[in-house]
Amino acid sequence: MFGFIIKKNFCDGWDNLLSVVLANLVFLFSGLGLVLLNGLTARSESQLLLLFVLILSVIILSVIIFAYSDTAAHIANFDGIRIFDFIKAIPGVLKDATLFALMNCAVFLISSFSIRYYIVESGSLFGFALGCAIFWVDFFYLLAMQWFIPIRALMHNNFKKCLKKSFIILFDNTGFSLAMGLYNLILIVLSFVCIGFFPSMTGLLIANTNALRILLYKYDYLEEHPELTTKKQRRQIPWDDLIAEDREILGPRTIRSFLFPWKDDQQQDL
What percentage of residues in the chain have a pLDDT greater than 70? Predict the structure, then answer.
């Protein structure tokens, strides 16, 4: 199942390469502009102003990410997209994107100060243990938050429900969430290698949205089979059957089909 998700992510990124790269450029240049703004603000003596600009920067980037999430959902669902659909989506995501950014800023600021105080400055074994505990809480928080935006894009829930379901997905699929976290980390490294052009922000969104979309098949299956009551039964998910239709839609993809798609079309016509 995970192998199919990786394959679909690559195919979706390749098939929508123009949309992916253009959205990444918007994100990249916005990020560079905000870094420059924060650098200029850092020259001032006002720590409050610097904090305000930093939080504002996170909100702006969050809005861009949320705006593209609907496009990522359309891509994951095999629907057609328009290149600049994500620009039109900005007004509808402002509220949730801002709340998400503020929540993450609060968690980051509180955690960074707490971990530094308890582990570095407290000098006590209890403080060290407490700092480690905060670190692991943050770790699982990050794993849960990788599901927040895809849940909103695919299920159209409000902010509170998205937050709740993010943790439900995490604790019900801990191993899968860890695997996706590692996969996301690899995509981030690749993004730096490719200077932010690919896969970058859009690649991460498409990857997590595809993963959640496939994962939701599990809950549809369990809902259709209420007789499966034990943990062992509920873990035996027939993934090959559940993703069979998606495999058929995606079709057999080869390196040749990526580089010379018109040749495959010519062979089909013959």
Answer: 94
Phi-psi map region of 156: left, alpha, beta (phi>0 left; psi -120 to 50 alpha) = left
In 3D space, the residue among 208, 199, 195, 181 whose CA is nearest the CA of residue 69 turns out to be 208
Total domain count for the chain? 1
In a domain, 266, yes or no: no
Alpha-helix runs per DSSP H in the chain: 2-15, 17-42, 47-76, 85-88, 90-115, 125-145, 148-155, 159-172, 174-193, 200-224, 231-235, 239-242, 244-250, 255-259, 261-269
| Model confidence pTM above 0.85 | yes
Contact 146, 180 (CB under 8 A): yes
Nearest to 88 by CA among 102, 103, 74: 74
Summarize pLDDT for 116-172 with one digit per residue, the tens: 898 888 878 888 999 999 999 999 999 999 999 999 999 999 999 999 999 999 999
How many CB atoms are located within 10 Å of the residue 91 CB? 10
Does any domain span residue 32?
yes
Question: What would the pLDDT profile of 58-85 be if each residue is shown by its tens digit?
Answer: 999 999 999 999 999 999 999 988 878 8
User: CA separation (Å) from 180 to 1, 145, 157, 174, 177?
Assistant: 12, 12, 22, 10, 5
CB atoms within 10 A of CB 150: 27
Give the range of the structural domain holding residue 191, as residue numbers without chain letter: 2-260
Q: Is residue 111 part of a domain?
A: yes
